[in-house]
């Protein structure tokens, strides 16, 4: 393992490095990935370096690389964003950037690990997110981790030729169930 920060059953989180930028660009440009992330312009490596630098410097963001413990390969990123330390809330984001690694439970494990970090380490009181209505795997992973549906932004985005709703979801500290140690 390379600079592990947080260990899960099959994954670990580590800092994102500038050297990860080419891989991040490959993740976010993939058509199946970007349609869930609202990326509508090509992203190059230089933009990803700027992204890593900006989030690393920001006190309101935490960004992790998601790495498979078996094989030590980065498969995505996740983080907490727009952190408000007075209201003790943050917004969760994640991507598993290789579609061949989808549907193996990694999104669910990532969600649980980020909640453990947000509530257990940062002492947040609320974590929320927005997800497009067609992102069935994401919605299911969030529901299983304890997120509740809090609202719908109707026809909020235009994706692949149609307007889609955005679902707002959130979880409170009192609803959080930590991963078993
Ligand atoms: C969303 C994402 C993180 C999900 O990751 P994943 O590793 O595939 O998720 P999991 O394997 O943990 O699956 C989560 C649940 O969704 C279910 N699921 C997956 N695809 C499904 C589908 N097409 N229909 C119904 N259920 C589905 C899984 O069965 C699982 O539920 P279960 O444990 O009850 O069986 C991943 O698809 C991704 O990164 N997509 C691109 C970026 C993105 O969408 N980020 C989130 C933006 S809000």
Largest sheet: 8 strands, mixed
- The helix/strand order is EEHHHEEEHEHEE
Oligomer: single chain
Roughly what is the average pLDDT, rounded to an integer?
97
- Name the bound molecules: coenzyme A
Distance between the termini: 19 Å
Pfam family, one: Acetyltransf_3
Organism: Archangium lansingense
Protein name: GNAT family protein
Domain N-acetyltransferase: 11-170
Task: Describe the protein's topology.
Layout: E1 6-7, E2 11-15, H1 21-29, H2 31-37, H3 45-57, E3 62-68, E4 73-84, E5 89-96, H4 106-121, E6 126-132, H5 136-145, E7 148-159, E8 162-172
Parallel strand pairs: 5-6
Antiparallel strand pairs: 1-2, 2-3, 3-4, 4-5, 6-8, 7-8
Bound molecules: coenzyme A.
Describe the structure.
The protein has 181 residues and is of the alpha+beta class. The chain has a domain of 122 residues: 3-Layer(aba) Sandwich (Aminopeptidase). Helices cover 30% and strands 35% of the residues. An eight-stranded mixed beta sheet has the order 1-2-3-4-5-6-8-7, with helices on both faces. The protein is globular. The model has no long low-confidence stretch (mean pLDDT 97). The site of coenzyme A has 21 residues, from α2, β5, α4 and α5. This is GNAT family protein. It comes from Archangium lansingense. InterPro entries: Acyl_CoA_acyltransferase, GNAT_dom.
């Amino acid at each position: 393992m390379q600079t592990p920060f947080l260990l899960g059953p099959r994954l670990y989180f580590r800092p994102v490095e500038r050297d990860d930028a080419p891989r991040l660009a490959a993740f976010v440009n993939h058509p199946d990935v970007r349609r869930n992330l609202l990326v509508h312009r090509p992203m190059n490596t230089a933009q990803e370096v700027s992204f890593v630098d900006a989030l690393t410097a920001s006190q309101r963001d935490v960004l992790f690389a998601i790495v498979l413990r078996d094989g030590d390969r980065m498969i995505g990123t996740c983080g907490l964003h727009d952190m408000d330390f007075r209201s003790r809330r943050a917004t969760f984001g994640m991507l598993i950037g290789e579609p061949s690694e989808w549907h193996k439970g990694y999104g669910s494990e990532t969600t649980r690990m980020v909640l453990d970090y947000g509530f257990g380490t940062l002492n947040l009181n609320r974590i929320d997110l927005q997800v497009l209505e067609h992102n069935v795997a994401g919605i299911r992973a969030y529901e299983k981790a304890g997120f509740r549906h809090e609202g719908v932004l109707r026809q909020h985005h235009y994706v692949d030729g149609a307007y889609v709703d955005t679902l707002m979801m959130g979880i409170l500290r009192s609803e959080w169930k930590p991963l078993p140690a």
